[in-house]
Structures are given as C-alpha cells and as structure tokens.
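Final report, closing paragraph on structural work. Over the funding period we assembled a curated collection of sequence-structure pairs, and we close with a single example.
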Amino acid sequence: MLDLIFENPSLLLMMEHFDMNIVVRNKTVEQICNENQINQQVFINVANLYNGFNIANTKDIDRSDTESIILFLKNSHRYYLDEKIPEIHDCINGLYAKNNIPEIRLVGRFFDEYSQEVKEHLNYEDVVAFPYFSALANNREHYDSEDKKFSAEEYREHHTDIETKLGELKNLLLKHIPLKQDGSLRRKLLTSLFELEYDLTIHSVIEESILIPLIKKIEKQKKIG
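Its predicted structure, as stored:
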C-alpha cells in the first residue's frame, strides 16, 4: 500500500473517506482491507477511480458492503462541507478584498448559489437516501422512509452531477477575469476548485456504478422498489 500512496498521494484522501489509518507500515492492501472490514473489491474499485481508471468489477460486491460504501460517501460529504467549500469561500473573499471589482463579486455570488445547491444535494442523501439504503441492506423494517414511494430508481432520477457546474466557474476565472495582483491566490482558488471537482466526480461514479446497482439488486431480491 505504501508504494501505491507514493505513486498517487490522493489515495490518502480515499483512505480518509474510508476511515482508515493512513499509517500503513508495510501492510498489503488485503491486510488493510481485512483490518478495516472493507471488501477488497470495493477498495480496489474506488482506488482505480482515484488512479484515473474505470471500475473493473462489481460482481463480488453485495449487501454486506453497503455500510462501507455509505461510510465513504458520508465522510466525503464532510470533506466538501467542512474543508473544500470554506477553503474556496476564503480564496474568493481574499481576492475580493484586494480586487473590489464586479467580476469577483459575480464569482462570489455564483459560488454562494452553487455551494447552497451542493448542501441541499448532500443533505438529501444524508437524510433521505442513505438511511433508506442502510435499512434496506440490514433488513430493518422501516426502509421505506417517510415517502413510501422512495426507491433506488427515484434516487437515480433525482441524482444530479453537481460537479459539472464547477467547470463554468473555472472557465470564468481562466478566461474572463483579468487581475493584476494576487496570482498566487487565484492559483490556490483554481487548485481548490479542481480538487473539489475531482473528488465530486469520483463520488458520483461510485453512486452511479456501485451503490445504485447494488441497492436495485437488493430491492429486486425483496421484490420492492
């Protein structure tokens, strides 16, 4: 595992999302997965995404893996809300403090609206979708949530790619806003936007390619949904 981290340090963030200790010593991926009770296939699939590859195989992922997938997604929510979004707000405010121009004010308004949309999206997952998925996978009775019609298909239809709008903001900063100073702050802002977009894209692929198919399979077994 140590060699893999040296090759791609973003795997540290992935391990953080899985609640794993990043002090890996000389342990193998298999040993780390066993210690953390995470299906090695789930771990490898997600690591492939962080390494720029597609998900290779999901046939060995079953309902017992639902909680670890949800744990990963919930922890990624905290990363967006507690770390990346405040970091981006700070960069925009810093630029505005030294460049009091309408264009920076426009960037601030755009990101305020975007971050509110992200918060609503993540709250929907935390409050409605994930409790349903968890209860369903663990055979608890109240897996229908307050809306009795809720299902993996409804979640898929509601699901939106919140990462795509960040492209508009990056274009705005790279093409249309000239600043004579604070180049380093603009670089930090763009770097944070790229990092947020990168992780949100992986987040969406995990939901679309692993979680939703898994929940649909469970619903089919239970003849619901």
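The mean pLDDT is 90. The radius of gyration is 20 Å. We thank the funder for supporting this effort.
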